[in-house]
Write a structure and sequence with these properties.
10 helices, globular, alpha/beta, 284 residues, 10 strands
Length: 284
């Protein structure tokens, strides 16, 4: 099992030295990867009294691919993971370019987690259609992989047209792993057919959902064991909880320190240090 940490977006603050310290400490502690959540804009709840989303305009978010371009030069081994980029609200070719550049600068350490999101406010501001986001995301995944693989492509789809054009530089392996976030039935199906991995929430049906992913992969002629499964868990999780996820087929976990009433950014570093000690004994 691979063990990572979640970058505490909403609580780390804007001091670049503290941002760097969290990442370099994560690496020095032996964590395999660092996950960053994504939100471009937050809604002002003063004009939306019925707002139910978990984030608002008061929630701080560093843009993940910009963040990773900074951290790529400060780290050497830790995998950099978006968890998840809201893909359909972005231009596909631009995401392909940004991701390829981060992968080049980090020497092949990017894993691109993508999802369709829930925040209509962001879609409106970015000029993207919220209603067809799932359908568009499948075509976007195809376009991303082709742009990373070939020097130049021509592509005509329902949502994209590219005429003999390509990226430069390309990712070192001419590919970047694409993992999907989300729990809807269509997402589980999409993971089995298309994705390199899945980022589900921990829930009572997780084992059955993982089996569903594997069954879909078999039907699509894919190796089900090649699909990774990652769950986000609190840094206060116990050894038994981690082992239970491993028994269900989870291949990666990431410890999250946000929303635990920690007093300052330094306390997040202390929390991932304590969690690492626990996990070392759990998975020895």
């Amino acid at each position: 099992m691979k063990i990572g940490v979640v970058f505490p977006q909403t609580e780390i603050g804007a001091d670049p030295d503290m941002v760097a310290k969290f990442a370099t400490t994560s690496e020095s502690l032996g964590y395999d990867h660092l996950i960053a959540y994504d939100h471009v804009l937050g809604a002002n709840t003063a004009s939306r009294p019925d707002w139910k989303g978990p984030y608002t305009s008061e929630s701080m978010f560093h843009e993940p691919l910009v963040l990773f371009s900074y951290l790529a030069g400060l780290t050497k081994t830790i995998e950099l993971v978006t968890g998840v980029i809201i893909l359909p609200q972005r231009q596909t070719a631009l995401v392909a370019k940004q991701a390829a550049c981060v992968d080049v600068l980090s020497k092949g350490r990017l894993r691109l987690g993508v999802g369709t999101g829930w925040n209509e406010v962001e879609y409106e501001a970015l000029g993207a259609n919220f209603k067809d986001r799932g359908q568009r995301s499948e075509e976007q995944i195809d376009v991303l992989r082709r742009l990373w693989r070939d020097d130049a492509i021509s592509y005509t789809g329902a949502h994209h047209k590219i005429t003999d054009a390509g990226l430069n530089p390309l990712p070192p392996k001419k590919d970047i792993p694409i993992w999907l976030g989300g729990m809807a039935p269509q997402v589980i199906d999409r993971v089995g057919r298309l994705a390199d991995g899945w980022l589900p929430f921990v829930n009572k049906n997780l084992a059955a959902q993982i089996e569903q992913v594997k069954a879909t992969a078999k039907q699509a002629g894919r190796d089900p064991d090649s699909i990774g499964i990652e769950c986000i868990i609190p840094s206060t999780s116990t050894v038994d909880q981690v082992k239970s996820l491993q028994d269900k087929g989870v291949t990666h976990v990431a410890m999250v320190t946000m929303n635990q009433k920690l007093p300052d950014p330094g306390a997040h570093i202390e929390a991932i240090t304590s969690a690492r000690d626990m996990l070392a004994s759990a998975l020895a």
